[in-house]
Amino acid sequence: MKPTMQTNLFLATLLGRLATAQTPPSFDWDSISPSTSLAYTDCYGAFKCAKLSVPLDWLDESSNGTNGTDRVSLAILKLPAVVNDTDPTFGGTIITNPGGPGGSGVEFVLLAGSRMQSVADGEKHYEILSFDPRGVGFTEPKSDCYNDEFSRAVTSIQQRSLGPLTGGLEIIRRQRALYDAYGRLCERGPDIHRYMTTSSVARDMVEIIDKIDELRQKEAQSSVPRYRRGASQQFQTRQEKDLPRIQYWGFSYGTVLGNYFASMFPGRVGRMILEAVVDVHDYYSAAWEKNLIDTESDYNTLFTTCFDGKANCALYQPTDSSASDIRARFDAFLASLDATPAQYVSPDSNNIEQFTRDDILGIVFSTLYQPLLYFPTLASGLAQAMEGNLTAVYQTLTQVPRSSAGYCPTPAPTEYTWASDALAGIGCGDAEPQAASTVAGFAGYLGTLEAQSPHFAASWAHIHLTCDTWRVRPAYRFAGPWTTPAPTGANASAEAGRPAAPILFLSSLHDPVTPRANAVAMAAEHPGAAVLTQANAGHGTLEVPGKCRDDYVKVYLATGEVPPADTVCEPDCEPFQPCAELEAGAAAKRSLGKRAGDGAPEWPPRRRLPLSVV
Fold it and tell me: What is the DSSP letter of 31?
């Protein structure tokens, strides 16, 4: 797969969409001012937004102001619970992170907040809250190394034109040189890169839960008669064991954030679900060698579920006797592209393109994250391409704007296009400093990944290459250990320095980038933790309906009780099969902003990050 810096330095060709993007209703974040307390404003219809001002450097809190270069303004969004905060069934706030690193929590809650709520709500009802971490999305300052969309696009085109890393030592040498230039660009870029580590974001979350508690206490006090308000300041002098605790549900890289938080602040953990689990040691070392273990098995489900779906899958033919027949045709198509890349001339512009095996596999890789949602659209696009109609492929992969109007009147970004810069600032900033590898050494590393996933290793290897040439070192980063004391248990009194409940690790059975083995390994480092598996393919389980999974999550959030060891739940839906719950969820998402009557599912987002569920 041919990488692009425009969308993601780390994952190649995860670029376009075949259908109209799911764009939430607009909201002007400049209309609200940052504050050191939570002051919510109605936004995006049923949601509430706020900007929380926190210190740029948590080790230097000398600034008392709410603005300026020594502060960070966190964009926060929440989906209120279906009951009032005073209702006895209100279960509190679940803070979530979609992964990335660099994924927008604001965007995630807009698109998946109601889905999370439906899984979590049972006897208790929860509000879902997230935020754009440092340098990300609507949070300021931003971590944009370019601040110029034309320059970003030029780099992206250069990157793709060099070819895949599997093309030999000369291509590795040239790719590395371009990444090195990118590292130099970001080195002179925004200062926020020094303060974006997961350690700082974990400390931001402590501030968020404290401010949530502060606001709730004030709102409760405001309903108390004036003559009874003398005890209103009790929460300011509570003992450590009584401080507010987080309820957290993190996905993919969000499991790294959760692991950091629990390890740094174990006494502030109430409930913690870590889904699609990253091996934190592999992440910290910048090796990225424990991600592709199950990728090929996930890839194989494209063909097995297509065969099972028969006419519901555009790649299926009536003469097929097994999934192997479908895969053989697709392999032959890939081989033909090795021999002669496909050519395309745009019918509505003067743009031309050529597409290779790596381009097609890049599209496939992006759909492995959510097969239930994307396999049907993928199959349709691939079937067209195999018949010579490359329009869908062009719309997915092209980097060329239809006209110069895309950069006029200003090339400055008008949406969140610097996700790759944020990813590098967080992921490479968290990692141990990398000694520059030789070209031959990197080729050996690529070989290690190819042994795990011959189809998709080249794309994943870009992460290591980026950190290899990253120059900005953070002001502070946590170096472990990543573990927690034994939890107190649901029926015991809270104790300072100990989680209130064990951590629940959640995994799919065939995950393209966070294999179940990671969940098992991480759970072993946290006393009492359990692993719950849902037997679906894809990155995590959230977008795959499953009542069994839902019931365990509801019980855990309400009581702190984890499932029995080695529990495996079956999913309620499979790709290419009817799924009423999925259709209902798609309709809800379309109501956020898709064109009226446009029922097509979203194609993989252009900003697909390697460890993200959005």
Answer: G
Q: Is the dihedral of CA 250, 256, 262, 265 positive or negative?
A: negative
CA distance 85 to 220: 9
Pairing of strands 125-132, 567-569: unpaired
The single-letter DSSP state of residue 603 is: P
Which among 154, 153, 172, 152 is positioned nearest to 162, based on CA atoms?
172
The confidence band for 601, taking pLDDT boundaries of 50, 70 and 90, is very low
- Among 493, 500, 562, 553, which Cα is nearest to 245's? 500
Across-strand partners of 90?
Answer: 125
Q: For the full predicted model, state whether its pTM sits above 0.70.
A: yes
Torsion of CA 46, 52, 56, 59, to 10 degrees: -120
Closest CA to 69 of 53, 80, 47: 53
Strands 41-43, 47-55: pairing is: antiparallel
Contact predicate 414/142, CB 8 Å: no
Contact 308, 318 (CB under 8 A): no
- Which residues partner with 355 through β-bridges? 342
Burial (CB count within 10 angstroms: exposed 0-12, middle 13-18, buried 19+), residue 605? buried
Share of residues in the chain with pLDDT > 70 (%): 84
416: Cα within 13 Å, side-chain hemisphere: 26
Cα atoms in the Cβ-side hemisphere of radius 13 Å centred on 284: 16
> Rounded to an integer, what distance in angstroms lies between the CA atom of residue 238 and that of residue 217?
13
* Cβ–Cβ under 8 Å, residues 539 and 613: yes
Lowest mean pLDDT among 147-156, 486-495, 517-526: 486-495
Pairing assessment for the beta strands 269-275 and 504-510 based on DSSP bridges: parallel
Q: How would you class 73 by CB atoms within 10 Å of its CB: exposed for 0-12, middle for 13-18, buried for 19 or more?
A: buried
Q: Show the domains of the chain with their CATH numbers.
A: 33-139+198-223+240-281+477-571 (3.40.50.1820)
Backbone angles phi, psi at 225, to 5 degrees: -55, 145
Please check the confidence at residue 579 and state whether its pLDDT lies above 60: yes
Q: Is the pLDDT of residue 346 over 90?
A: no
User: Which residue, chain included where needed, has tokens 């997961």?
Assistant: 198
pLDDT at 248 over 60: yes
- What is residue 189's predicted lDDT score, i.e. its pLDDT? 84
**Contact (Cβ atoms closer than 8 angstroms) between residue 506 and residue 283:** no
Which range among 20-24, 408-412, 421-425 has the greatest average pLDDT?
Answer: 421-425
3-state helix/strand/coil string of 367-404: HCCCHHHHHHHHHHHHHHHHCCCCHHHHHHHCCCCCCH
Q: Which helix (H) or strand (E) holds 248?
A: strand 246-251
Q: Is 341 exposed, middle or buried (0-12, 13-18, 19+ CB in 10 A)?
A: middle
Three-class SS state of 508: strand
DSSP label of 425: I
Residue type, 361: L
Listed in sequence order, the residues at least 6 apart from 540 whose beta carbon sits closer than 8 Å to its beta carbon are 251, 252, 275, 276, 506, 507, 508, 511, 514, 613
Looking at residue 161, its pLDDT comes to 86
Alpha helices in 483-592 (DSSP H): 516-523, 547-559, 580-590
In this structure, of 153-157, 192-196, 286-290, 320-324, the range with the lowest mean pLDDT score is 153-157
What's the Rg (C-alpha) of the chain? 24
Q: β-strands 269-275, 246-251: how paired?
A: parallel
Judge contact between 569 and 507, C-beta under 8 A: no
DSSP, collapsed to helix, strand or coil, labels residue 255 as: helix
